[in-house]
Structure formats: structure tokens, C-alpha cells
Specification:
188 residues, two-stranded parallel ribbon, 2 strands
Length: 188
């Protein structure tokens, strides 16, 4: 082989090697751009999730504060003091007639009202239907139970540990309903 052909072959190999290196560099550059775009999308999604999470937490905090305020107002309405009664009624007789109670003084009337209001928090009514909810077929109970005063639900042991009474279950369910309605409203 001549020197000329050997140098031509060496030049061609260098050119092929150079092309391969350029191809590899271009592929790495493209992969880097794809990785940058993917990372950017991931960061954008994470920011959106964080924003939604923060918004949801703020909504939950607002709802809990609203519930606490309503409960406080409800309890404040049910507590009677002599001053409150005197502001509402001009005479003890007028107050006694209004509440249909017998009392010898403003203080005894306030005590009787407070005692009776604590007893009437949960009226005892006999349920018309004893219904067991099973997790595999809940159906639409709203239509089935419109005429019922109360629906009795049997809680499993782990749930009953968390919710000691029906009031706690109802408050949790009402809260869940409000969150669900609010989220469906925001998503529509």
C-alpha cells in the first residue's frame, strides 16, 4: 500500500470517528434537552400540586374555623344568664310565660333554662328503619330514606373507636360533603 492511500484511509477513519463523536454529542445534547423539558414539566406539576394542596388546606382550615364559630354561636345562644334574660324580657313574669316555666327568681329561671337546654341537645326519637350499610352496595339512600327521621348505621370497630357518637359521625360526614361539593364546584 502506498503512503498516499494509507494517509487517505487514516483521514477517512478520522472523519468517520469525528462523525461518530459529533453524532454522539448531538444525541447527548438532544437527550439533555429532553431531560430539561421533562424536569421542567415535573417541576411545573409539582408546583401545581403544591398550590392545590395549599389551597385545599386553606379551604379545610376555613371550613373548620367556620364550624367552630357556628358551634360556639350555637352554644352561646343556648346559655342563659340573668343579664341576657333581663335584656330580652321586661319582667320575670313575661320571661316565665314565654318559656312556660315556673321560677321564683331570674337566677332560678336561668338555671332551669340552662338545664333544659342541655337536655334537649339530642332528642331521643325511635328510628323508623334499622338499615345496615355494606361497603359493596351502598346505592342511593337519599331517595330511599327521604321520609325517615333517622338512619341507623352499624359502624365497624375501628371506625367506632374514632367516632364515639352519632354527632361525631354526622359532623365528619357533613364536613366531607362540603369538601366534596366545594371541590366538584371548583373542578367544573
Amino acid at each position: 500500500m502506498s503512503k498516499k492511500s494509507a494517509s487517505t484511509t487514516g483521514t477517512q477513519r478520522k472523519a468517520k470517528l469525528g462523525d461518530q463523536i459529533r453524532n454522539i454529542a448531538n444525541r447527548l445534547k438532544q437527550e439533555t434537552e429532553v431531560q430539561i423539558k421533562a424536569t421542567s414539566r415535573i417541576l411545573g406539576a409539582a408546583a401545581q400540586i403544591s398550590e392545590n394542596h395549599e389551597r385545599l388546606i386553606n379551604e379545610v382550615v376555613d371550613m373548620v374555623e367556620e364550624d367552630l364559630n357556628q358551634q360556639t354561636q350555637m352554644y352561646q345562644k343556648d346559655i342563659y344568664t340573668v343579664d341576657i334574660l333581663k335584656q330580652q324580657f321586661q319582667t320575670l313574669r313575661e320571661a316565665k310565660d314565654h318559656f312556660q316555666l315556673k321560677a321564683t327568681s331570674w337566677e332560678s329561671l336561668a338555671n332551669k333554662l340552662n338545664d333544659s337546654s342541655s337536655q334537649k341537645i339530642t332528642p331521643k326519637t325511635k328510628p323508623q328503619l334499622d338499615q345496615v350499610l355494606e361497603s359493596n352496595g351502598m346505592g342511593n339512600f337519599e331517595d330511599d330514606c327521604k321520609n325517615l327521621e333517622r338512619l341507623t348505621v352499624h359502624l365497624e370497630a375501628d371506625v367506632a373507636e374514632i367516632f364515639p357518637n352519632s354527632q361525631a359521625v354526622n359532623e365528619a360526614l357533613r364536613f366531607l360533603i362540603r369538601v366534596t361539593k366545594k371541590n366538584s364546584y371548583l373542578n367544573s
